[in-house]
Specification:
Layout: H1 8-38, H2 48-78, H3 86-92, H4 97-125, H5 132-153, H6 165-186, E1 189-194, E2 197-202, H7 205-217, H8 228-253, H9 258-288, H10 293-296, E3 323-325, E4 330-332
Antiparallel strand pairs: 1-2, 3-4
Helix pairs in contact: 1-2, 1-3, 1-9, 2-4, 2-9, 4-5, 4-6, 4-7, 4-9, 5-6, 6-8, 7-8, 8-9
Length: about 325
């Protein structure tokens, strides 16, 4: 399938530049994440799961950035005059080792990020049943990623570009599974107006769970602390990632070379979406001096209501006294 849009050498330069900018932001947010996870905590109190995932996301993003720089150098400098068809043909060649490696790294980054969203969903719900569908989508996405990478690693020089059917069908399925899994597990929100004013609609297991808990305790707490900022943080991260994936899917289906730009930008965006949840929850924790279950990951959803002070309801006690008299004694109950 013939690609459309900007020339591939131009797309390669632009995508690497945009990835570099976002990568810089992600490194800065990684530092903030480490501060949020370790601040005023003993070694045994540090959440190892989130710390490990943060490091892995940084390592994968860095590796992808390095591979892209090497790929730019090879296409525009090393093989500029020797590769048949020039730089544009080089960047369209799916058999290049740098192209295969960067797609493998992207697949690992996506599976790690989506897997962490599903894990957070389990932490909040404390139920395996609620994550069955997202987990099945995640497994299907993993299979599609493996098949796509396998097709790329075994492709020949006559295989065509990435939009060709042997690889294109698996990449399209990968995009769809990733988008569905992320939306279902984390959820997004939208706003609409009615006669009573603005209201919020939240879909997705994670956002819905916290929203329902907020409604259950709102009538009996005295403080102005609310869990709705947690939902907004999750929604912001979900929207950021979902819009990126949806844009990449549309570009890929239309065989537009803009998908290369979206692909490279998605790498640091996955890291940024993960980091922003932890950092914003740490800011809320510092402000209100409480602990968040979503940012830290190991606490259970049952602990969330314990952050709020409950109203002391007046209790009126009536004591009845019954006197029984007989000939020998008088007893009071």
């Amino acid at each position: 399938m013939a690609s459309r849009g900007m020339p591939l050498d131009t797309a390669a330069i632009f995508s690497t530049a945009m990835e570099g900018i976002l990568y810089g932001f992600s490194v800065l947010m990684f530092v903030g994440t480490m501060w949020a996870l370790t601040r005023k905590r003993r070694m045994k109190e540090i959440n190892r799961t989130n710390t490990a995932v943060a490091f892995m996301l940084l390592i994968l993003s860095t590796a992808h950035m390095i591979v892209d720089i090497i790929r730019i150098e090879e296409g525009l400098v090393t093989y500029r005059d020797t590769f048949p068809g020039g730089p544009a043909a080089f960047f369209a060649d799916v058999t290049q080792i740098t192209f295969v490696v960067k797609n493998i790294i992207y697949s690992l980054q996506t599976m790690l990020g989506d897997g962490m969203v599903i894990y957070r969903c389990y932490v909040v719900w404390q139920s395996v049943w609620i994550i069955i569908v997202p987990s099945l989508l995640w497994i299907a996405m993993t299979v599609c990623a493996f098949c796509a990478d396998y097709k790329l690693s075994n492709a020949t020089s006559e295989a065509g570009d990435v939009f060709a059917k042997p690889t294109g069908q698996w990449i399209t399925a990968f995009y769809i599974m990733s988008l569905a899994s992320n939306l279902l597990a984390s959820g997004e929100h939208s706003f609409y107006l009615n006669t009573r004013g603005p209201r919020q609609i939240y879909s997705g297991f994670l956002g819905y769970r916290i929203w329902r808990m907020e409604r259950n305790i709102s009538a009996i707490r005295t403080s102005n602390k609310s869990m709705m900022p947690i939902v907004r943080v999750l929604a912001d991260a979900a929207i950021l990632y979902s819009v990126t994936i949806l844009t990449g899917l549309v570009c890929f289906v239309e065989a537009n070379n803009g998908q290369y730009i979206i692909l490279d930008m998605t790498m640091p965006i996955i890291s940024i979406a993960f980091y922003m949840i932890i950092i914003r929850m740490a800011m809320k924790t510092t402000r209100y001096n409480n602990t968040s279950t979503i940012g830290m990951g190991t606490e259970t959803a049952r602990e969330i209501p314990q952050q709020y002070h409950m109203k002391r309801m007046p209790v009126e006690v009536h004591i009845s006294q019954v006197t029984h008299q007989d000939e020998t004694s008088k007893s009071a109950y």
